């Protein structure tokens, strides 16, 4: 009798624990903005995007969202599919490829002649997500033309409204905000004398 009761309790506990499954994890990536149009006429130029720095609070696989002035949520079941620094660099490179009409924009060092390669550094000071409201990206960037020692410095603070529920809408708003960063960088490149 005692053995039967023990087996029953163990079976009940196992059944309860088996019913407590975690939700599935979703993985997200940033995407280039398909609506970006070429900014004037340019000649093909070689450009390397990087390094990219991000705040420690978002330099993790989990998507971090703001829930209050002094509180954030680290979302265990909503994750970046790759490190955020690399994803930001990849998207800005793709956006600039469209804006500057050049197929020689990359995140990989060493592909192009260093004496003719533009360099873009991105220091992300803020990458905020407030679910149901908006996202804000604050990026200080530096564009170094080939052969010049002084970079063109700039800062872009982009706000985008989140247009729907869930993390897919949050990530899409970040895509649009990064497109604003890319437009400012492309304008700086144009102003630096690219024909």
Structural description of this entry:
With 195 residues, the chain is α/β, with parallel strands linked by helices. The chain has a single domain, classed as Rossmann fold. The protein contains three helices and eight strands; from the N terminus they run H-E-E-E-E-H-E-E-E-E-H. The strands form two sheets. The protein has a five-stranded mixed β-sheet, with helices on one face. The relative contact order is 0.19. The mean pLDDT is 88.
Overall helicity: 25-40%
Helix/strand order: HEEEEHEEEEH
Q: Mean pLDDT, nearest integer?
A: 88
What is the makeup of the main sheet?
5 strands, mixed
Annotated CATH architecture: 3-Layer(aba) Sandwich
Key features of this structure:
195 residues, alpha/beta, 5-stranded mixed β-sheet, 3-stranded mixed β-sheet
Lay out the secondary structure:
Layout: H1 2-18, E1 26-28, E2 46-53, E3 62-68, E4 71-80, H2 84-100, E5 105-106, E6 117-130, E7 134-144, E8 152-161, H3 166-191
Parallel strand pairs: 1-4, 2-5, 2-6
Antiparallel strand pairs: 3-4, 6-7, 7-8
In a nutshell, what does this entry contain?
By secondary structure, the protein is of the alpha/beta class. Helix content is 31%, strand content 33%. The chain has a single domain (23-191), classed as ABC-type transport auxiliary lipoprotein component (Rossmann fold, 3-Layer(aba) Sandwich).
